[in-house]
Amino acid sequence: MSEILISIKDIKKTYKSMGEEVDALKNITLDIMKGESVSVMGHSGSGKSTLLSIMGALNPPTSGVIEIDGIDIYKLSQEMRADFRREYLGFVFQQFQLIPYLTAHENVMLPLTTTKRTNKEKRDMAEEVLIRVGLKDKMNRLPNQLSGGEQERVAIARAIVNSPPLILADEPTGSLDTKTGDEIMELFQELNQEGLTVLMVTHNPDNTKYLGRTIMMKDGRLSDYQEELIRKSININ
Amino acid sequence: MSIFRIALNNLMRRKIKMLFLMLGLIVGVATVISFVNILKAMESELGDKIDEFGPNSIILPRSEGMDINNNNTMNTDITFDIQKLTMEDIPKISASSVSQYINIISPKLVGAVETEQRKTIIVGIDTKKEFTQKPWLTLKQQDTTKEIQELSFLDLPNKSVILGSSAAKALNVKVGELILLDEKEFKVFGILNEVGSEDDGLIYGNLNEVQTLLNKPNELSMIEVSAYCNNCPIEEIVVGLEESLPNSSVTALKEAALFREETIGQFSKFGFALSAMVLLIAAMVVLKTMLSSISERTREIGIFRAIGFRRAHIMKIIFIEVGLIGIISGILGFLIGSLAATYGGPYLAQIQNDIPIDIQLLLPAVLLSVGLAIIVSAYPAIKAAQLDPAEALRYV
Please, which residues have CB within 8 angstroms of residue B60's CB and are 6 or more apart in sequence? Predict the structure, then answer.
């Protein structure tokens, strides 16, 4: 039986907006197993990106507990949480979010910058993952010299260079055409098959077919009913 | 890949902004450096002029003395074992350990002579040296048809004297007339303008003639010395003179030294105030540019924090950036400031001395630039490090 990698217990997140309290997440309880691939779907404002940022140790919940690999991440200090993100998490942000003045190779090396590896080790590790995502010949290009799909691959390479157990992806195919988006999803599928746990926020129902489980969110709550609807709509298409 | 590389690449990317920031620092450093250079030259020239304006030390014959107190009712000064100053002492001053600071040596013999059945004080001087040292003494009338001469260029003719204004009035003599001094005839070459000091009551003659008149050949009453004190304190000159003249006692004229220090001090204060203002403006430019740069880089900083950079790493990136800019700005500011002082300083400050490039100011210039940049950037750096990564990535 698989072990639990992420354990979310009764998470709430409340924001203050225009003097009023808004509940972005309402009593979310969820477990994600090691090696699982999960898509989180829902309309804009449903709370899916908030949930991702809370799982990414970036955004403390108002109440509730979240443990990743048995570590209560919001009991860690700010700086310890930064170390945790470096060692445990690989982020793939919306719109790639590459550093524009660094080459593809340097962008991929970024998570290794603050580790105690030698420069050669860092270069080799980055090169290895760039080869893995099919960008061997474009390592020394700046982001603006790469296509959208290539930039996404660099972003994925940056997320996996440190060999984290968990990849968190926020709308990774949102700015790509369908063909490139499918290629990127196949890459995520391969990474998952190699043992990485993948959690992806997506608007695109087509992406769910590359991932094992789909979680539907509505008004800050998990919604099984919506999940069924989505499955049906995929089957119809 | 290192934090240094990230900082360097960012600088290369934001060339215009970084050039603007650099320009602020360069202007600040260049102003300070040119001002320091010009001030040093002005201080030196002003010091020299002040040093030339009257003696700053006086050499008298050494004597032993004691103060006798009679039952607290009467004090008596007794002086004994009085030594003599002679003409041979003058070359010893030029050969002393402080000779490089000596500007004017003005020997003189003071004595009383009888004229018109009354005693008057006569001073034997080397006219050029005495009147160069005391430029406030000027001729009112002169016994020639030529224009009144500058006293510092005057060769007093033989058997001639110059009278102070009160002395001329008391003796009731005019220029060109003859007066008897200890029954010897002297012509009144000129009469000085009134200065309101004891100089007004004196008769000035050539030193050798006064020595003969007073029957003190080769003897001196005192030697007044003007020394350049830019590079050494007056006390050091006093010690050096006393070592070379054991038969004498040397006294520093504190008023001259104090006036000098006070005048130069005021110049320095003005310079520091102006430099501080320019640096303040440079600091504001750095602060504004860095805050705007941090604001533009919010998302980028969010990415760094999300992928595991600690706050200290973010601050390190910013400090490396401003440190590099500070180093380059310090070097360029030093060069521009030094060249501006060298070529523009003499015209701007109306000074005659050359202003050389002082390479010793390079390190202070770089340290000033780097220090200023880092201190001013501390607030933007802390602000950047404290950015909430979720907010920076717009997850909140």
Answer: B85, B221, B222, B248, B249, B250, B251
